[in-house]
Structure formats: C-alpha cells, structure tokens
Amino acid sequence: MADRQGAQQARGRGGFASARRRPRLGTLALVALLHVLAVYGLAKAFAPDFTGSVEREVMEAITVTVTTPPEELPDPEPEPDPGAAGEEGREATPREVTAPEPPVRVQPPVPVPQASSTGTAASSGARERGEGTGAGGTGTGTGSGQGGGGAGGGAVNKPVHVSGGIDDARDYPVPEGGRAARRGTEVIVRVIVGTDGRASNCTVYRPSPDPEADRITCRLVTERLRFRPATDAAGNPVPAPFYWRQRWF
Description:
Elements: H1 2-18, H2 25-46, H3 48-62, E1 160-163, E2 186-193, E3 199-206, H4 211-224, E4 226-228, E5 230-231, E6 237-238, E7 240-247
Antiparallel strand pairs: 1-4, 2-3, 2-7, 5-6
Keywords: Membrane, Transmembrane, Transmembrane helix
Subcellular location: Membrane
Pfam families: TonB_C (PF03544)
C-alpha cells in the first residue's frame, strides 16, 4: 500500500515537471526590447555623440522624399489688337412704355350774365337812370371844379411875378456883427396869390439864421410884389400858392 502511494507521488512529480509550458514568442520579444532599450539608455548616457550619429543614419535611411509635380499654369490670353474692332454688343430690345393718361380737369361752370329786363321798377338795371344817385346822367353842377357849383378845377398855369422888389441892403436893418453875418444866406416864404394878383397868407417855408429878416421878408412880399394870377384849363384866374426866395449878398 505504501509502495503504491509512493509510486503515485513519484509519478505525479514527474508529470508536473514534464507538463511545464514553454515561454511565448511575444514575451520573448518584449524581454528582448527591454534589453535593447536598457542598452540604448546606457549608450545615450555615456556616449551621446555615438548615439546621435546612429539616430541620424537611421532617420536618413527611413526618410522618404516626395516630389510634387509642378502645377500646370493656363496659357496666357493673347493681348487684344489696339486696332481691332470690339466684340458685338448685345442687341437692344425696346421695352414697351405706356404713357399715363392725363387727368381730365372739369372746368367750373361759367355763370351766365343776367339778361336785362323790361320791367317798370326804378331799380331795374335796364333803365338809363333811376331815382338814386348812381344811375348816371348829369347833376346840377359841372363836376369839373373843386365844388359842385364851382367854375372849374385847379390851376393849370402858375402865378408869375410881374412887379415889385426887395432891396437887401436898404430894406433890412444891419444885424449884429454887420451885414457880413447875413451874407450868403437865404429865406423861402410861401404866399397865396389871389385872382387880383396880390399875395396874402405869407408863411416861412425855409427859414434863415435871422428870424427878424424872415418876418420882414413876409411883410415886403405881401406889400410890394404883384403877380399875374394862375389860371385853370378854361383860362379863368384861380388862387394858387407861390414861393419867394430872398437871398442876401
């Protein structure tokens, strides 16, 4: 019994040893790669120039140069001839245009004038004259004068001085400072010449520097001067204004 068990144990040990698996190919490659990397690292540390030259040779061996073919450019267009005719343009196509219709303006109706009547009323427009003042005809006056019963209109011919005069040396008193103080000055007076040719209603129109001389001028004009009176269109004498200028020399 004991011998049988010992034999089984011995057989079991021998079978385990014979049943141990072989290492895989991938594992061996990994272990080899690790050894190579370890050796490369030691060489990189202790001989960097050597490892650098090896790296360059390896990179040059695996570098692939790719050459790009040159790009084909289009042929240049020929330059146009300066004397050649241009290309034909597109034919113009006329477009139909419709003009808008003008608006129609309606003229307002023209009022028709009233026809004259043949009635007997005094206010009718067909009568030559009515009972009012605006019917036309002639009145009691001539209508040509300044008043309804006057003889005519205003003066057509102005009054004219015919006689009388004023002496500036004898008719005026000597002013203070002598006659030279009044020399070169003048006064203009306005009078009304009546139908008898005499002047009246004298007023100073443009005074001189000497008021006393102006008053003397008014008195002398009304006393001494005589005029041919103004006349109207019919030749009748009418009152009219006259302006007398007195200068001192």
